[in-house]
Structures are given as structure tokens and as C-alpha cells.
Amino acid sequence: MANNETQQDQFSSGPLPIVLLHRLPSFKHFPDPPFRDLLYSNFNLLDPHDSPHEPYDSFLTRHAHSITALVTVGPTPVTDEFLQRLPCLKLVVGTSAGVDHIDLPACRSRGITVTNASSAFSEDVADYAVGLLIDVLRRISAADRFVRGRMWPFEKNHPLGFKLSGKRVGIVGLGSIGSEVAKRLSAFDCSIAYTSRNKKPSVPFPFHANVLDLATNSDILVLCCALTEKTHHIVNKNVMLALGKQGVIINIGRGSLIDEKELVQCLIQGEIGGAGLDVFEDEPNVPKELCGLDNVVLSPHCAVMTPEAFEALRDLIVANLKAFFSNKPLLSVFSSSYE
């Protein structure tokens, strides 16, 4: 949080608090007019890419000692080298649920707090995860292709799908998104279990200390955790084999949570039953082998893409910044390897 107590009055009098807008040159500067207006009405936004007559490095150097907070747009990298140029920085406000583009150890060593947007996206992403799961189990996308391809008059019977109710669902990362997934799947009478960095005392679901144990006792894995060094390839071949030949993996986290090469081979060889994937290791490049599998549902990293989610994101970003400059608790601090 900001250390200067006089900042408490910045929203009632005096100059607007300074916030750096950190974005790649190719990223648009907040195309949503209400969002842009809300930010400009509450903060003095500094955008180096909006100063065409001053080089980026010069702009950053000139303002470095006045910047205590920044908003990083999308997956714009926040590296150790970049942080070294902002000696007074105390807050990084993320606009995505994932934080793999932010050097968390460097932030931690400098006393910089990081917030993410998972709480703004949690309901919509959870809806999408359940949608992917139902699609994989009931073969909805495959059935759509079957009809559109004019195969119905000739083959008559589409392959059977599988029931969702009663399935054992293991959730990897029971944070805001994982909790919403659990709530939705509980309504389907699924048996919920989870793994996370620590057991959550207030959660009624069984806890497993690692993903391998969770997979062994699940029919379905839903990946909801952030991508960090500890969660990279957290789902490897051993986990997939433990899940079993009818097991299903849903990934709405980050592509590199799964060893994608092993996933492809397990799907081709029938070692697992199916997958619903909204994220991939090398986006937008998707392994071509996945495109020919009817037991796989593919999606272009769009689980968060609803107007309601972006409205919630707008409110969360502004609320975190206002809280910071008013010495109040932040709303969405990112603090763990996986929830």
C-alpha cells in the first residue's frame, strides 16, 4: 500500500494520483470509452506510447520517481529489468486472471504487491468450464459437425456420450474461479475434491495433497490455477495415466499447466477419454493432431469474453487503485503458487 498518508485526500482535493499504463505498442489503449473515461477521471494516466514525440526510455526515466502504481494491460511482460527502472513502484494491477507474465519473485523482493483479475472473471470462466465439460462428455460439438457434414442420413447413429451427474471432479486450484466451478458442478450432483497449496479449513470438499492423488480419485480434472514455476506441467503423463482411459481434462487456466505433447499422445492412444481446452502452450498455434479428434473441444482462449466480465474488470481495477491510494485493503491480491 501507499505509505504517504496524505494520499487519503487525493480523491477529494489536489492532483490526481499518477498511474502508469504499461502495455505493448500493439495493444490498444482501452478501446472501451466508459472504461477510459473512468480511469482518466480518477487518475493521472501516464502512457509512454501516447507520447509520440518522446522516446519510450526517456519518458519512463523522466517519470520513474513519481510512479508508485501501474496497470499492466493483458499479458504485457513485467520483468525484473523493467521493475529496476521504477524504484518507487509499490503496486502492479493485473488485468488478467493469469500472472505468468509478471516476475513475481522480483516483485516480492521489492515489496511490490500484485493484484489479478480472477475475481472479476470467475463466474464467466466457471460457466465456460462447465460448458466445455458438458460438450466433451455429451459430444455436442461432434454432433454439430455430424449434422452439418450431412452424415446423419447415412450413418444414422451418432456415438454415445457420457453422463455428467455423479462424476468425481477434481479441481486444481480452488480460488475464486475454482470455487465457482465447484458450486456449479455440485448442482449436477458431482462429487467434488480439490488440490491447492494448502487445505482450506472452511471448504467441505475432500483435499488431496497433490495432483497425482487427485487424479487417481477423479473422473475429471478441471484446471483453474495460475501458471507459475511450481505449476508448470503440473499435469504430466503420470497424472493423465492416473486419471484413466475415460478421464476428461478441462483447462481454462494456462496452456502450460499441461504437458501438451504428452496430452496429445495420451488422447491419440486412448489413455484418457477426452479434453476441453481453452488455452494452449503456444497460442495461437494449436497442435494439429488435436483438430482431428472428436473427443476434444477446442476454444481460442475466450472463457472470459463477456461484456459482463469486462464491466466487472473495469470496476475491480478502479477499486484496487482507489484502495491503494487511500491506504485501504486491496481487493484481489495475488499471493500463492496456486489457490
UniProtKB/TrEMBL annotation:
Entry's transmembrane regions: none
UniProt entry keywords in alphabetical sequence: Glycolate pathway, NAD, NADP, Oxidoreductase, Photorespiration
Gene Ontology molecular-function annotations: glyoxylate reductase (NADPH) activity; hydroxypyruvate reductase [NAD(P)H] activity; NAD binding
GO annotation terms (biological process): oxidative photosynthetic carbon pathway
Residue intervals of the D-isomer specific 2-hydroxyacid dehydrogenase NAD-binding domain: 130-303
D-isomer specific 2-hydroxyacid dehydrogenase catalytic domain ranges (all copies): 61-333
GO cellular component: cytosol
Protein family membership: Belongs to the D-isomer specific 2-hydroxyacid dehydrogenase family. GyaR subfamily.
Protein name per the record: D-isomer specific 2-hydroxyacid dehydrogenase, NAD-binding protein
Naturally occurring in which organism (per UniProt): Corchorus olitorius
Lineage start: Eukaryota, Viridiplantae, Streptophyta, Embryophyta, Tracheophyta
